[in-house]
Specification:
Blueprint lengths: L8 H7 L4 E3 L8 H5 L5 E5 L5 H9 L4 E6 L2 H12 L8 E5 L16 E5 L17 H10 L6 E6 L2 H13 L3 E6 L17 H8 L5 E6 L3
Parallel strand pairs: 1-4, 2-3, 2-5, 3-4, 5-6
Antiparallel strand pairs: 6-8, 7-8
Helix pairs in contact: 1-4
Length: about 220
């Protein structure tokens, strides 16, 4: 995601330490201390400008939502959106930093659900290891997701990434609960609880199909 440099982004982070953690300055994350409760934890990796995370948190006040994003200007935009709300939800926290460093800071078997919304498809073969459904990422997701019931939800407009992800999940013995090449097809069950991301709305306006996968950690 390319945005113009925001000279105030760093200060925005500093002014919102109650909402955002800096990866480089964060040790082991203890969710009961971070959220001041023991509710379920949902994690969005690559949260972008925060539309999905914020709306999902508002609609699900009994679930704690954690979003991670490496682009500083994007985190600043998400923080502004949260601060502009009439009622600031207490069940949302953000992390600024590289997600690959996150896995060592999270407790094992602690996450109920992970969202991958419109991740970079990395279409070139030489970049395949950067896909968020490549082998090492799936292994790390399995470590932090709750045993037997932890869920991974994927949405993407990129057909190649969709089929790659579906096949790689199967290869790693993940349980596939649901998959589709078009959640907006007539009467698709996924739409019942779907919250559209900013990218999703953009792609839908261009009449692009939206793929989705729901899977659980290997039993």
């Amino acid at each position: 995601m390319r945005l113009r440099n925001d000279p105030n982004a760093k200060s925005t982070i500093q002014e919102n330490k109650d909402l955002v953690l800096e990866m480089e300055n964060t040790d082991q994350i203890i969710f009961s201390e971070l959220f001041q409760n023991t509710g379920p934890i949902h994690l969005e990796i690559g949260m972008g400008k925060g539309d999905f995370l914020i709306e999902t948190a508002i609609q699900n006040p009994d679930i704690n939502f954690l979003g991670i994003e490496k682009a500083l200007p994007v985190i600043a935009i998400a923080l502004k959106k949260i601060n502009d709300l009439d009622f600031k939800p207490k069940n949302i926290k953000l992390i600024w930093g590289n997600m690959e460093k996150l896995f060592d800071k999270l407790p094992l078997n602690s996450i109920d659900k992970i969202y991958l919304n419109f991740s970079d498809p990395w279409p070139k073969k030489k970049h395949i290891k950067r896909r968020l459904t490549f082998d090492n990422f799936l292994i790390n997701y399995q470590k932090i997701l709750i045993l037997k019931k932890g869920t991974l939800q994927i949405k993407t407009d990129n057909n190649d990434l969709y089929f790659y992800s579906l096949n790689n999940l199967k290869r790693h013995n993940w349980v596939i609960n649901y998959y589709t090449t078009d959640i907006y097809s007539q009467n698709d069950i996924f739409l019942k609880n779907n919250i559209a991301t900013e990218y999703e709305i953009k792609f839908r306006n261009k009449n692009k199909n939206i793929n989705a996968i729901l899977s659980k950690v290997p039993i």
